[in-house]
Amino acid sequence: MLTRPADEDDSDLEAEYELEVYMGATAMRLGWELADPRDAWKHTGETPPEAFDISAAAKRPYRTPQSTTDAFFYVVRLGNPEYLTRWVAQHPLDATALYKLWEGKNART
């Protein structure tokens, strides 16, 4: 591999290139922040938006996802009681609701 001796112009070019990369990254970040209302206020002089109220989301009661219900009935159809026991043990929040669904499908009238 051939290399040429470094001269004074190389360090100037490197510094110029680093500055160009830095300015490009800064412009990109500015574009992203202006596009996001959570960050745009930093550049527009507007007041910051109110923070998201997590407590409102926490007040919703837990509901068993449909995918968990589908998986439960799949595991039931496998016919392996030991596996079903382990699977239900891994879903403690869903166990009661899944039992009610199973009971409803298997109720004798």
Structure described in brief:
By secondary structure, the chain is mostly helical. It has helices at 8-35, 37-44, 54-58, 66-78, 81-89, 95-105. Helix 1 (8-35) packs across helix 2 (37-44).
- Weakly predicted, low-confidence segments: none
What are the secondary-structure elements, in order, as H or E?
HHHHHH
Shape: elongated
Structural class: mainly alpha
Number of domains: 2
- Helicity level: 55-70%
* Main beta sheet: none
Assembly state: single chain
What tags apply to this protein structure?
mainly alpha; 109 residues
Structure commentary:
The chain has two domains: about 10-55, no CATH class; about 60-105. The protein has six helices and no strands. The protein has helices at about 10-35, 35-45, 55-60, 65-80, 80-90, 95-105. The longest helix is centred in the first third of the chain and has 28 residues, at about 10-35.
